[in-house]
Predict the 3D structure of the following.
Amino acid sequence: MGKMDQPAIWDKIQRNAQEARRLAEQKKYNLSMIKSRQTLEYIVRLQCDKAGIVEGAPDDMIRQLYAAKWVSKPTAEHYLQILALGVNAAKTGDGSASNANLALKLLTEEVYAMAGPGRSSRPRPASSSPQRQSQPPRQTATSAARRQQGSSKSGHRSGSSSSSRSRRKRSRAGLNGGDLIKLLIPIVLIVILIVLIRVLAPKRTETNETTPAPTTTEAVTTEAPTTAPPPVTTEAPTTPPETEPVTYKTTDTLNVRKTPALESNNRIGKLDPNKTVEYVGDYDDTWAIIMYNGQQAYVSKEFLTEVTE
């Protein structure tokens, strides 16, 4: 078995997983399960290429990967479940949303499991340990400088507080009797003035006490009634118009298959050269969907050409 282009296969796995999610969001659940199964086949082939396992049937390759301890038991069970859902969707036309979401959930977990550990780990720089060893001396010198600065500030504060206390003591000792008399004279004059005002103007105070206080009326404000916002109407999503099928013809003898996979047991017919077929749409870069005997089938796009009228 030749070696595969692993980066190209990995990119294709990621694109197909995104396509399966897009089909599920568009409610094309049958095609989403088939796309999930096709993505799984790429994953299994990539794993077998790394493990040196010869390609065969997808379920047989999964069991060989588990027997070789290349994948764990839960991973092997997820692979088989995605494979079964995809095969059932291709054979029976199953369009269940729950089955499609389950296949997509399991596929997403396994893609993340493959991408996570090998692509996120990075080696640590070799210079990290010397830097950590050189940090304590710088921190010690800085803390010593801060302690020295704090002690100088505390000494300055203690000196300033002692000088202010000595100034207050000197100011208290300088007060004498003459200074006290000068301070008391204005206070005595103010008291005498207050007493004279109360004795000489009793009527004025009485009239002030008997005058009724003016009544104030508060203005009544009426609030305008609030109107409820108009109801929000949601329009139903419009479905895009259906496009008319395009007619193609075969350029060579062409096998018709139930599923987009090269397996001998899923071939349901054969088309002769220059045979006109009803072309439904592209499945991917390799397979096309056509109508064959009243049902959808898959053929290789390489041997189809469009019929121009």
Residues 62 and 77 are 9 Å apart (CA to CA). The longest strand covers residues 276-282.
